[in-house]
Amino acid sequence: MNDTLVNIVAWAGIAAFVLGLLMIASSAYRRGLVWGVIGLVPVVNFYYVATAWAENKARNGFLLLVAGALAVAVAFYGGADEAVSQTAKRVGGEVGVEVPDIKMPVKATRDVEVPNQAEVEAAGIDTSESVLDRSDYVEGFAVQPLPPEGAQSRPAEVVTRLWYPVCPQDLPGREGRPLRLSLKEGRVLEGKLTQAGDISLRLEQYVQGGVVNYEYRYTAIDRIEVYERERGPVPVSLNCTPPPPAPSEAADDSGSTAVVLPPPAPADE
User: Rounded to 5 degrees, what are φ and ψ at 28?
Assistant: First the structure.
């Protein structure tokens, strides 16, 4: 449908709709003012038409109203279709959706061996079953999926991480890393390093479902370990420079220093 025809059909439909509505209202006014108001309200006036179907004016008005509504709907549909066609002509092609040829995984694992077939069989997974019926996971062991046709599979890089001891002066720059502290009192704590200072550090820990930052002084820590990518054997011990004394340290009777360290308290958020 061209634009001119669309406009003609649309205006003709509107005129027919309005004329049919007026015919129903005129017929309804013969029964009374309330019926006349009802006759002016589309959809609601169908109740009057149902009760006055025998009257030619009400019946013909209803048919004219429905015909006008259909004509307007056709005009809108044809106009939208025309707009799409014109757009397609301007861009120089047909409007449509092109579905790319997606390479799906090759044959089911019942037909070919998976890359880690030996490990799969050792784990007790039966690859002769359908991939929809079997379980590809046995105690954390996963079947390595088959690559698409033409693709080259390469094993994923295995990253090993270990706990490496570090000195307090090596902590700056490692914020956000997993940290393990062995306190002189015997406790072992794990968490995330959030701050490393000259005399203390702050460790983020999970306590009773919440996250809390605790401060620990180096003088109360026996060993500090960081969880990092493997870079060689883990040293048994390190020769670290002793941290500077804290302002709250006091001398005991023997002349040595003793740390006056209150129980850890949550840091202010």
Answer: -70, -30
